[in-house]
Amino acid sequence: MNRHADGKQARTQGPLRLGSRTFQSGQPLIMAIVNRTPDSFFRPGSTWEDAAAMEQVAGAVAEGADIIDIGGVPAKPGMPVDVAEEIRRTVPIVAAVRGAYPDVVISVDTWRHEVAHEACVAGANLINDTWGGWDGRVAEVAAKNNAALLCAHAGGQEPRTRPFRVAYPDVMADVLSRTLDLAERAVAAGVDPSRILIDPAHDFGKNTWQSLEVTRRLAEMTATGWPVLVSLSRKDFVGETLGLPPEDRLAGTLATTAVCAWLGARVFRVHDVPETRQVLHMVSAIRGDAPPARTIRGLV
Amino acid sequence: MVITACLCPWPPILVRDLTGRDPVIPGLRQACRTAVRRLVDAQPELIVVAGPAESTRTWDQASRLDPGVFAPALSSDDDRLQSDGRRDPALPPSLGLGALLLDEAGYSGPRILQAVADDEPVDACSRLGSALSDRTTRTGMLVMGDGSARRDPRAPGHLHPQAAAFDAATERAMRRGDLRALLDVPPALARELMATGRPVWQVLAGAMLPQVPAADILYAGAPFGVGYIVAFLQVAMFTG
User: Is any Cβ of chain B less than 8 angstroms from the Cβ of A240?
Assistant: First the structure.
C-alpha cells in the first residue's frame, strides 16, 4: 500500500458499487441531471412538472444514462426551500423513477440528511452532497441505508452562498484534504468504501481560475484511488472562460469532459447525455480502456 | 499625525491579470490610481495601509499579494518583485491590494501594513487609529474597505433590502468628511450586509478625528452588487 506525500494511504481504483450495480474502473458513467426546481440556472423549470420530469428521465435512460440525479434546491441563493418542501419536490419522483426503472441508479442531490434519508427509503442509491458535508449527519444516513456517498469540496462554504474573494494558497491541496477527510469519515461511519466517490465540485467555493486549476490537476484526485465524479455541465467556469451564456456552453463543457475523462474521472454529471456519451467513448478508445465501435478501414 | 487618506475597495479584480482577456472595470482601477497618486503626492513621511483581515496585527512592509491565491495560473516560482517586496500567500488580500496600489504609484517610502480584524469592536478600531496618528510623523493612510456585498440578487451575498441605504449613508458621511458618523456604523449590521470596510473606516475615524477633512469622491457604485467607494480625504493644514 503506497502513501501520498501527506501520509494518507493511496488506493488503487477498484469497483464502484451503486445500488445493485457494480462498475469497473475504465467504465465511465453518466449521471443525468433532473432538476425539480423552478429556478435552476439552465433550462429553469423545464422539469418542474411531474410529467415533464418523468419524460426527461425516460429520455435520459433511453440515451444511456447510468444514473438519474434528482435535486430540489438550486445551488444559487434565492427563494428559500425548507426540508419539507425539498422532500415534496424530490421524494415522490424518486419513488416514481424507482417504480418505472427498477435497475437504474438514482441519486439525490441534497446536502440535508433528512432529505437524503427519505430519498433513500424511496429508492435512491447515492447521496450527491455537493456542499461537502455541511450537514454532519449525511454520512450516517448513507451508512444506515447502504447508500453511496459523494464527498465533495466546497471550501467550507455554507450551502446556497456564492464565493466571495475566496483565496487558497494551494486550491488542489485544499480539495484533496477536504474530500479525503470526508471519505475517511464516511468509512468510519460505516459507509461501504466501494460506495464512496470524491468530487472537486467545480465552481463551489471556487472562482473560475481555481476551477480550471482543479481540472488541470485532476490526476492528483484520481491517483488517490477513490472514484472521481465531476459536475461540469454548462457551469460558470466554462462560461467565463469562453465568454458565453449557459445555452452556449456545450462545446466548452465537452472539452472539459474530455480532459477529465483523460485524467481518469469515472462519473460525469450532465445535462446533455448523448453528446457526453460520445466524448466518453472517444476518450476511452484513446486511453485504450474500450475498443472502437467498428474498425475495417485499412483492414479489409 | 494623519494628514491625508484615501479609501479604496479591495476586490481582487483590481488586479488587471485577474480578469482574463477582458479588462472588466478599468474605470474603478483608474479611480484608485488617481486617489493613491494624490496620497503619494502629498508627500507623507509614512503611509499606513489598513485593511480588514482575520486578526489585528501588522505585516512585514515587504509583504506583497500572491495573485496565485486567487488564480493559480498566475503563481510564480519567483516570489521576488521589482519593488523589493516578497509575495506572501498568507498576506490578507486587502493589504496585498493596498501594497500593490502603492507600488504602482511609485511609492518607495516607509509603510506599515496594518491588518484589522473583521470583528474588531468599534472602540478598539478607534483607539488603533488614534495610536497610528499619535506621533509627529506626517502620515498618510490607505484605507482598503468595501461597502455591502449584498446590493442586488446577483451579488456575492444576494440582495439584502438594507444594503443600498447602508452604502448611501456611508457615502454621505464621507462626502461631508463626517468621520464621527463612521463610528456609529454598527458592526453586527455591517457583518450582516457583508461590508468589509466597517473596521478600517473606524480606524480612519480614530486617526483623523477631531479633524473634518475635505473629501473628494472619485468613484461610488456597485457594478457587481458590491459597494465600491474611492475617496480622497485631506486635512486642512495651517502654516505657522
Answer: yes
Distances (CA, A) of A48 to A45, A84, A93: 5, 17, 11
| B114 close to B127: Cβ distance less than 8 angstroms | no
Please report which confidence band the pLDDT of residue A48 belongs to, taking 50, 70 and 90 as the band edges.
confident
Is residue B148 within 8 A of residue B159, CB to CB? The reply is: no
Contact by Cβ (8 Å): A73, A55: no
Tell me the three state secondary structure of residue A15. Answer: coil
Instruction: Summarize pLDDT for A107-142 with one digit per residue, the tens.
Output: 999 999 999 999 999 999 999 999 999 999 999 999
Residue A11 has pLDDT above 70, yes or no: no
Rounded to whole angstroms, what are the CA distances from A279 to A45, A67, A273?
27, 17, 10
In degrees and rounded to multiples of 5, residue A172 shows phi and psi of -65, -40
Q: Does A80 touch chain B (CB under 8 A)?
A: no
What's the pLDDT band for A10 if we cut at 50, 70, 90?
low
ipTM over 0.85: yes
In chain B, what are the domain boundaries?
A: 2-234
Instruction: With CB atoms and an 8 Å threshold, state whether B73 touches A77.
Output: no
CATH 3.40.50.150 fits B2-234, yes or no: no
> Cis omega before residue B213 (within 30°)?
no
Specify burial of residue B225 (Cβ count, 10 A radius: 0-12, 13-18, 19+): buried
* Residue B25 to residues A68, B39, B67, B144, B230, Cα–Cα distance (Å): 42, 22, 18, 17, 14
Q: Report the distance separating Cα A35 and Cα A14, nearest Å.
A: 30
Residue A168, chain B, CB below 8 Å: the answer is yes
Q: Right CATH number for A16-287 from 3.30.420.40, 3.40.50.1000, 3.40.50.720, 3.20.20.20?
A: 3.20.20.20
Task: Please count the other Cβ atoms lying within 10 Å of the Cβ belonging to residue A236.
Answer: 17
B95 contact residues in A (CB cutoff 8 A): none
**Are the CB atoms for B155 and B225 separated by under 8 Å?**
yes
